[in-house]
Amino acid sequence: MGITKIPSISLSLFSHSSSPLSPLFIPSITNSSYSTKSLHPRHSNRTHSEFQFPSLNQPNHPLKSINKPLNNTFLHCLTDVSMAAEEVSSVEFQGDLSRSRAHWVNKSIVIAWDVDIGDGSCYLYASKTATLVVTGNGIEGHDTKVKLEPDNGCLPADVIEKFPHIQHYKPFKVPPGVDTKTLLKCQLAVVSFQADGQCINATGLQLPGVLDDLFSYSGPLGAVFSEEAISLYLWAPTAQAIRALIYRDSCGGSPMEITGLDEVNGVWSVHGPKSWEGCYYVYEVSVYHHSTLLVERCMANDPYARGLSADGKRTLLVNLNCDTLKPGGWDELSDEKPELSSFSDISIYELHIRDFSANDHTVNPDIQGGYLAFTSEDSAGIRHLKKLQSAGLTHVHLLPTFQFADVADEKEKWRSVDMERLATYPPDSDEQQAQVTAIQDEDGFNWGYNPVLWGVPKGSYATNPNGSCRTLEFRKMVQSLNRIGLRVVLDVVYNHLHGSGPHGDNSVLDKVVPGYYLRRNFDGYIENSTCVNNTASEHFMVERLIVDDILCWAVDYKVDGFRFDLMGHIMKRTMLKAQSALRSLAKDQSGVDGPKIYIYGEGWDFGEVAKNGRGVNASQFNICGTSIGSFNDRMRDAVIGGSPFGHPLQQGFVTGLSFQPNGHDHGAKIVVDSILSVSQDHIQVAMAGNLRDYVLTSHQGEEVKGSEVLTYDGSPVAYALCPSESVNYVSAHDNETLFDIISLKTPMDISIDERCRLNHLATSIIAFSQGVPFFHCGDEMLRSKSLDRDSYNSGDWFNRLDFSYNTNNWAVGLPPKGKNERSWPLIKPRLADPSFKPKKSHILAAVENYLNMLRIRYSSPLFRLRTGNAIQERVRFHNTGPSSVPGLIVMSIEDGHKGRPGLTQLDPNYSYIVVAFNASPKELTFTSPALRARTLELHPIQVMSGDEVVKNSKYDAFSGSFTVPPRTTSVFIESREI
């Protein structure tokens, strides 16, 4: 998923350098007026300013009195009371209770505030009924007033570690004996006065620090089932009262029971009868909400919900351990899972559940686009997955599967386009996108990066979104994939939530403990750098919820890996706790082999968390040494060219840079050639596992470490300490597909045959690199989205997959206007040109090439080395230095021999492998004295392939010379003596 961006730029695999070859730095635009739709196109249409103040549509909103005479209600929210202050003094009043600029940071009763009171004084005010009002003389409407004592020292070290962004704030102490727990249920404000008693500043309080210190809790949460009863537990230390409304049905009707919860140290609970099982409930939470400055009555689902009614209206009381929710053999599934010896053996295929079968006519229409499509053993899609698995693929990565917003769970509510009609329009028409976007928020498609509740499978993928159907069907999906030899990865989105505030249907956590779960800026407004409603894993109970949720998916749904969306916005400590919790799972206790669960994510470092602004975050550089993987955007940018944020025609290693200009001004020839050389350095570093300590010869002839090869902005290219920490990719759900980006960046006059070869060349670089290869579903079939750069909400029309291999979905109309209109002048002539469209024979050849590439990767463990030391000892690059042949990368991997000193033997079949990648449009020859007199021959899989071009690859042992056909990856192997 994506990140903070300049408007109209696709959001996902974020980069951090402005170089056309390396990650692009884009500063946080918190407090800007850019639309959040621009910042992250997958989510809300609300503008950023709407997150700064409560909606005027909310009942009793303070600003509704803006046109009334100045009164207490108005001053609740807008306390720039210069009018009132004028009568008292000429000193400008700076207070505003709509903001929360002070922090109650710990149970040692320390409040941090960025003010200097000099000889003045500071007070804490509280009102249980939220009636605080600022006047020229101070605060009125309070129940409690406490004088704070200024501390001339600094904030405590542990506070600074947890909240580094306020490290320079001044500490104020609350005197002993104050009933802190009671005060935290009130509207709170701190106010400063001059020595003469004039009020000069006032603000609200942010409470996560003190809540963590006083109420951190490790006991049961959610619904707990026993043989005799059902107990509900809810962590809500700031709530004033909580009731549970129990319903018999999923919607409508009156509650069959309303029961109050009792509180013990911030945890509310109630014990009910076993007969509640299968019923639904919601919480009624009475709590002060900082966004409205009112005590609100919030109707909320359980944050620990494990079941829901359609569209998340109510929480289902579902016992996941019930035998009726387990497919046959479920408890023994861990024994059936495909073998995994090392994370370096992993290869990942990224797939969207709806994409997989929505267009597959070999699937029963009743289950198309849903979980059960993966149980259709004879469907075209499953047959395709079986081919990939038989060639070596190990993991299927599913885009978000939790309960997300913007797709109705009940299919009868969906609207759809007339696909037969859309097919009649010209390939470059704007009519298709107009009809798709007209109903895009009412159809059945969305990627799902707009979480509502993390711990429940999405209802729209189930045959019935009510009841426990979604639980059973999700489990059947996992079981079916495991049984065809594929492990399952879930795409989890813990960095933000779709809803906030006390009233929204999609708000949950912010209703239960307002201001705690969501990260706030210096003024107390919600941070939105991930798009909207950033979560705060630096807070104890947020971190706990994330770890508990991960464990639920691992134990109760037996998934095999997790891909963390915008992982850099989560704290490193949280990631390590999740990893540790997973590793502690054992088959004999939980039915799960925890150490084989792989974790990876987007380690982009931006927004308020950049440079550890909120604590040590899980960014690429921080996460190294943990065995947690992160996406290697350096590889992507060097192979394809530019970045997702640069000019769309910027070329790279495989898209014609230096060899076949596309008309874009890349600079003088010497500059272009230098960019190509730098790109090759970046690719070579990435192919060596992106290891920061790997030593290679740069294009300038210098011996350098991977960390000494730099991007344009001076950032190191390499960051990993072991190969499984680098997830290598050139294409993902975000941005254009591989076929589309190649079609866009290459010159218009090259042939479709050449574009197909480049598609395979780019993929082969990923497949033959050390580290974890990651492939976007459909790239092996030349998948197109008609050049849509952000298809998160582009419907089935632009996202179609065709496992019959008849079409790749190219040229089905101009892509949606919102994120593509600026590029329409580039896109239109390409879509209109019939020579760009591949034939079925091209698609079939691409599938075969991809399968062969996987077979080659898994033909030797030398492609899957497990340690940094092994890569340093065995992997070499030969076409390096100032005299290197442009456009050619030559890599060798050496194995040892049993009984001989030196390297240990890993491969029983091959003792030496050489892989040559020729990105130029011409045949290239390279001679290396170091590679003379070897018994190298073309890999037998390539010899037997249908690719006649690769068969022209040659090696001359006498001279150590390699001949590599144009736009070809040639693999040479040295077989062991028999």
Automatic annotation (TrEMBL):
Limits of the Pullulanase N2 domain:
100-213
For this protein, the record's InterPro entries field holds:
GH (IPR017853), Glyco_hydro_b (IPR013780), Ig-like_fold (IPR013783), Ig_E-set (IPR014756), Pullul_strch (IPR011839), Pullul_strch_C (IPR024561), Pullulanase_N2 (IPR040671)
Q: Name one GO biological process term.
A: carbohydrate metabolic process
The residues covered by the Alpha-1,6-glucosidases pullulanase-type C-terminal domain are 805-974
Q: Which GO-annotated molecular functions does the record name?
A: pullulanase activity
Q: Name one Pfam family in it.
A: Pullul_strch_C
Q: Which family does it belong to?
A: Belongs to the glycosyl hydrolase 13 family.
Protein's UniProt name: Pullulanase
- Which source organism does the UniProt entry give? Papaver nudicaule
Q: What is the lineage of its organism?
A: Eukaryota, Viridiplantae, Streptophyta, Embryophyta, Tracheophyta
